[in-house]
């Protein structure tokens, strides 16, 4: 199994690791962290267990270099989404038509298995730089695992093995989530003029956000990511059919591009809402729930060039560069000042009722990563 990423993948899928922040009373990452910790120690890695949040352990496993070389982190998350609606056996892999099925095969135990095998193989060779395997918790909810890892570890570069179809993801959007409460004044429905209708205020905000959305589409686009977006993801308000609504809450998602400042984004949103509420005299509160910056690898990045060279040797081609609309932990790694990119398996069914990775992509990923580690860290 130490040389076979498919065998390791099957072993990892068999260990339930549903994020307990997503599904109450789920198993979480503790059991799979135990398996990986034992596996990596048996392979000669020095393993540190990080668990600032009980029940959500992450692992930092290092094969120390002899000195004077570049260090490389391979980053992959251990948690998965739920399995209650999965079609068939979620925790037992099966291979059919060139694909391997099971929860997490694509997102992202296929990548984890490939990177562990690749790191183990590369660590057997002389290497001057440290080889670091970061197996993180909680990527599917709050990314607290990678946050903890980058507080404890700095490397010269990193590869996040999220699925990418064996192409090079060198940019992705960031996001910010906000809650808005429009504060009105209740009144009897027969005399609405005596109240301040918070739902009407929310309607004005919806119109304002639609104008902002159009403006974003007219701004300069990113060559890989297109434009930023804004949308309302939830709306709640009102008391009953006979009462002017005293309050209304909106949840807003803003997807942002490299160079966008979350503080500036919040100011823009606050000014827009204030302008929408002012004519009717409504008050509001705006709360930022979370903000994650966008990610972009700089042109000519040494780790990108190293992966390209390794892929050319293994795949016979230079992988295409791409951008993603979604966010990954590469955003946190990049913010920590570590040069990184995303490079992972092919397949489909992320968060769906059936999930798979292509067998060939798991095997080729392990080979490309092994070659990259050997070249980069030597």
Please outline what is shown here.
By secondary structure, the chain is of the alpha+beta class. It has 9 helices and 17 strands. It has 2 domains: 5-172 and 294-377, Aminopeptidase (3-Layer(aba) Sandwich), CATH 3.40.630.10; 174-292, Alpha-Beta Plaits (2-Layer Sandwich).
How would you characterize this protein structure?
This protein has helices at 5-13, 30-42, 105-123, 144-152, 198-218, 262-277, 302-315, 330-335, 359-377; strands spanning 46-50, 58-63, 72-77, 94-96, 99-101, 131-136, 157-160, 168-172, 174-183, 229-237, 247-256, 283-292, 295-296, 321-324, 339-342, 347-348, 356-358. With 378 residues, it is α+β, with helices and mostly antiparallel strands. It has two domains: 5-172 and 294-377, 3-Layer(aba) Sandwich (Aminopeptidase), CATH 3.40.630; 174-292, Alpha-Beta Plaits (2-Layer Sandwich). The longest helix is centred in the middle third of the chain and has 21 residues, at 198-218. It is elongated, with a radius of gyration of 24 Å.
Total tally of structural domains: 2
CATH homologous superfamily of the largest domain? Answer: Zn peptidases
Count of helices? 9
CATH class of the largest domain: Alpha Beta
Fraction of residues in β-strands: 15-25%
Give short descriptive properties of this protein:
alpha+beta; Aminopeptidase; 378 residues; Alpha-Beta Plaits; 2 domains; single chain; 4-stranded antiparallel beta sheet
């Amino acid at each position: 199994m130490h040389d076979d990423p498919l065998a390791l993948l099957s072993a990892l899928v068999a260990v339930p690791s549903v994020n307990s922040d997503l599904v109450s009373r789920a198993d979480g990452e503790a059991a799979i962290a135990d398996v990986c910790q034992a596996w990596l120690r048996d392979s000669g890695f020095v393993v540190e267990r990080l668990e600032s949040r009980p029940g959500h352990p992450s692992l930092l496993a290092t094969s120390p270099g002899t000195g004077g070389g570049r260090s490389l982190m391979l980053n992959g998350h251990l948690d998965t989404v739920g399995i209650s609606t999965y079609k068939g056996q979620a925790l037992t892999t099966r291979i059919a038509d060139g694909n391997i099925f099971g929860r997490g095969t694509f997102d992202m135990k296929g990548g984890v298995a490939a990177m562990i095998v690749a790191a183990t193989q590369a660590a057997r060779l002389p290497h001057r730089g440290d080889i670091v395997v970061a197996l993180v918790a909680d990527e599917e909810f709050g990314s607290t695992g990678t946050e903890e890892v980058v507080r404890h570890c700095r490397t010269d570069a990193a590869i996040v093995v999220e699925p990418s179809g064996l192409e090079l993801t060198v940019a992705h959007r960031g996001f910010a989530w906000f809650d808005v409460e429009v504060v009105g004044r209740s009144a009897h429905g027969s005399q609405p003029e005596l109240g301040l209708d918070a739902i009407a205020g929310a309607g004005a905000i919806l119109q304002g956000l639609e104008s902002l959305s159009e403006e974003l589409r007219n701004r300069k686009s990113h060559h890989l990511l297109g434009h930023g977006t804004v949308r309302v993801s939830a709306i709640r308000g009102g008391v009953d059919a006979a009462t002017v609504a005293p309050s209304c809450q909106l949840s807003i998602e803003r997807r942002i591009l490299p160079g966008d400042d979350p503080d500036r984004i919040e100011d823009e949103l606050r000014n827009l809402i204030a302008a929408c509420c002012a004519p009717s005299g409504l008050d509001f509160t705006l709360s930022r729930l979370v903000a994650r910056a966008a990610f972009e690898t700089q042109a000519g990045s040494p780790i990108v060039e190293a992966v390209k060279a390794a892929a050319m040797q293994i795949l016979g081609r230079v992988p295409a560069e791409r951008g993603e609309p979604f966010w990954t932990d590469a955003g946190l790694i990049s913010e920590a000042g570590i040069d990184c990119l995303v490079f992972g398996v092919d397949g489909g069914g992320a968060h769906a009722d059936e999930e798979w990775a292509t067998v060939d992509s798991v095997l080729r990923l392990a080979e490309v990563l092994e070659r990259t580690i050997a070249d980069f860290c030597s």
